[in-house]
Design brief:
Blueprint lengths: L5 E4 L13 E9 L2 E9 L7 H15 L7 H6 L4 E4 L2 H16 L9 H6 L14 H9 L7 E3 L2 E4 L11 H15 L4 E6 L2 E5 L8 E5 L12 E5 L3 E6 L29 E6 L2 H13 L2 H10 L4 E4 L5 E4 L2 H6 L1
Parallel strand pairs: 1-10
Antiparallel strand pairs: 2-3, 3-7, 4-6, 5-6, 7-8, 8-11, 9-10, 11-12, 12-13, 13-14
């Protein structure tokens, strides 16, 4: 490989710093069909951080998993028509998702659960072939932002509407894990779940958390690779250069809300920085669906640091000038 790697350093003053004699702890686990990774600096008297991350993952499953029949999400999806009270975290994330849905023209739409399932990305499991026109029409008719109403802590189930938080739930899990860690006094940590990352504080020698922004195979040299230094931000990425083997191997997990089909390949990957991991995750998902220039313009309007990888391996970003200047 040739050429310099791009360095991005989170702007702003760092917060907490691990003290002399603090111990570095590393832990790993699995949940939600993926892995999680934790590194934390801990002082004497502070609790083991690993169970806190595991607890956040368990909360995420209990609230948002379409595969767990007793999750809050599954209960709403199978509920009879009428108004139903949703748990606070589920309603809050639904409102976050709907706000981004409205801002992006549906590029992130939490009401497409039936379509996601139809393409093999839901509780029914992988499918052997693409759905036919009738199946697609019926699933689209049962889906859509216009079918959902919310008031206070209640959502109206019109019958057959499936919510899906696949584009934001892992980010929420990271965010929740970080909240647990901070509440326990573990204020210097990096937690990653399924590729979504939140990092806080500095090591005893004053170093931030260095995160390599994953690049697809088309990025063949260091000139297109990026390394980010974080001390309080979250980083989420979405991409579809990795495709599973078997039926549906060429399908993106991101759905085009207009066609109801997996999105195309105008963006190979999207990475977003945000104070909240859930919103970083949601925006990264949305930017995978939008045309590159439209997505970048929207990110710029939202003052959202973002980096897109195009099919030819080129990387284009917005709102990253402060990050580059800090380097």
């Amino acid at each position: 490989m040739t050429g310099p790697r791009h360095i991005l350093i989170e702007p702003g003053a760092p917060g907490d710093m691990a003290g002399p004699g603090w111990r570095r702890i590393t832990a790993r686990g699995t949940s939600m069909g993926t892995g999680w990774h934790l590194i934390a600096w801990t002082a004497p008297g502070l609790p083991d951080p690993a169970p806190l991350v595991a607890a956040a993952c368990a909360e995420t499953v209990a609230l948002f998993s379409p595969w767990a029949a007793d999750s809050a999400l599954s209960r709403f999806n199978t509920a009879p028509p009428g108004w139903h009270r949703l748990p606070g975290p589920l309603m809050a994330l639904l409102r976050d998702s709907l706000r981004i849905c409205d801002l992006t023209g549906g590029a992130l739409d939490p009401t497409l659960g039936r379509l996601a399932d139809l393409w093999g990305f839901g509780p029914s499991g992988p499918v052997a072939a693409a759905p036919d026109a009738t199946e697609l029409r019926d699933a689209r008719a049962a889906s859509g932002r216009a079918r959902l109403r919310i008031e206070g802590d209640h959502a109206f189930q019109p019958g057959g509407l499936w919510l899906d938080f696949g584009g934001i739930a892992k980010g929420w899990a990271v965010e929740r894990a970080a909240q647990h860690l901070v509440a326990a006094g573990l204020r210097v940590h990096m937690v990653e779940i399924g590729g979504e990352v939140a990092a806080r504080g500095l090591s005893p020698d004053g170093q931030p958390w260095w995160i390599d922004i994953e690049a697809p195979p088309t990025c063949r040299d260091d000139a297109t690779r990026h390394l980010a230094a974080l001390h309080g931000m979250a980083l989420a990425g979405s991409g579809h250069w990795r495709r599973r083997a078997g039926p549906g191997a060429g399908w993106s997990h991101t759905l085009d809300p207009v066609t109801g089909q997996p999105g195309g390949g105008a963006v190979l990957s999207a990475h977003v920085f945000h104070r909240r991991a859930a919103l970083a995750d949601a925006w990264a998902t949305a930017l995978m669906v939008l045309p590159p220039q439209q997505g970048l313009a929207l990110a710029r309007a939202q003052d959202l640091p973002a980096l897109l990888t195009l099919p030819d391996g080129a990387r284009v970003g917005t709102c990253l000038q402060e990050w580059e200047d800090a380097a």
